[in-house]
Task: structure prediction
Amino acid sequence: MISFFVKHLSTYLITLIGILLLTFLLLHVLPGGPFDAERALPAEIKTQLYQKYGLHEKGNDSFLVWVLKDLKSYTLYLAHGELGPSLKYKDRDVGKIILKAMGPSLQLGFAALILSLILGIILGLIMVGTQNAWLGKTISWFNTLGLSTPSFITGITLILIFSIFLRWLPPALWEGWRFFILPALTLSLGPVAMMAELTAASLKEELKKDYLRTALAKGLTPKKIIAKHALKNAAFPMLTFIGPLAAHFITGSFIVETMFAIPGLGRHFVASVIDRDMFLVMGLTLTFAVILMTMNFLVDVGYGFLDPRVKKR
Amino acid sequence: MIILALERSGPRAESRGRRVGISNPLNDRFFMKKIIVLLYLVFLTVGATAPQLITHHRFDSPDQNALLHPPNSIHWLGTDELGRDMLSRILYGARVSLGCALIATLISGLLGLFVGGLAAFKGGLVETALMRLVDIFYAIPDLLLAILFGVFFGTGFWGLVLSLSAFGWVGIARMVRGELLRNKTALFVEAGQALGLSQKRLFFFHLLPQIKSVFFTVLLLKIPALILAESTLSFVGLGLKPPYASWGVLVAEGYSAMRFYPHLIIFPSLVIFLTMLSLKTLKTKRIS
Result:
């Protein structure tokens, strides 16, 4: 078990360092610097600003030297356990900005994840079990719809229907549970459809197997067969999907947050790159990568629970 | 209910219910669905390559006398806030959106094939290094990569194409390597080795053709994904600059006027939705 953790953690650590290096490099390749505002600053002030944040102007250095210089000061920040100052928001720490914005983002993402898992699995079960042709067809149509609608179109449609025509729910902002519903629905429509299809497909595949016939023959009730045997084995491909699902909620939440004006991480995403707010971009990348990897790690652990054979490897 | 599900999936299910002989294609709903989808895609392609065949309005000529008109007989899909015809804007948008997605899919496909193939062919240290690189790209959110590359390459057509390709290849490379490795243990490889084929010949003439169908399926799936990515990028303001427009730009423009002029948002959204739907329907297989 310990070697399992160590092996995974070391791989993740290497990947994480790679991600940070790549992003850092890309940020330096981009034309323009963090202090090239609309108003041109005098050269001396600019130099002072760069010095204050421990960054460097390219000057006469070669590209590599320049990147290494900046990298050194970023590593110093990290070594002190902070993510560096924001270059755009005066006197604010990247760690604090991210911590403050993380709340709404995580709530939204978590709600969408739970919603898509529960609703998706229920729909999938109904698809396999129902004898009502119309119900099956409706769900299948819903799935097609969910799979081929981009999230911003889902969001627009929901806003048009529920907040402009019906006036039931607020179209934007983040001030209570009523503000929660539309963004969470927008974010999870696609994943619900995907999950339902996946559940139905893997459950159908599982039901063909002989051991379930045996279970039925020895007199187990269908409910028990599904809950105790079939679903557990069918969960395998579903689990694989949770990793990409987390990624979807990360990038998808960005559009949804912009659309519904939610004060989450997403809105910093584009702005920080355009402002060349270097430390903020790095902090965001780090946060997202860590969330993603944690999800992947949990999925790997989950495999071990579902299938003891994986643990032995 | 579950007994029935078990019954349905039993061996008898396959032999039952399959009609023999040629039926009237008009009654074949599966067939008709594909025909309709194909017609729609052909219409889009024609509209994208030669819009003047469908509408005589230009996408960038404003009309002071027809600002924000709802759909009517002159402007079939209405006009926007500068009096530009929406239909022609959508058709010109198709040129950008579809063109971008297609070219980016091609580039990602080639790049993915190269990286995945090289990793599977060389093995050892090269494979480890390449796959670590793929992992790194995989763990950075697509959108951040696209934004970074988008800012770097600029917001022109080719800038969009390149920033879409920058993350499109990653999944393909993974898939190519996985499929190649899976096939590497097959008997025909062993037979080839026994016959004394060179590594290169075995790889290029025997192993690579094996993954053809999976590769093209993934490529076909990539097109709607990249159309979506392009419209997302444009929606957040990293797309083309006016007067040029892609579907995402149109949706973004319509979004701000959604409350009072819903036709500005409904039609571009509808076109994106229909295109995604058609591309997905095109690849479904008949379920017997």
Remarks:
- Chain A has a mean pLDDT of 82.
- DSSP finds twelve helices and no strands in chain A.
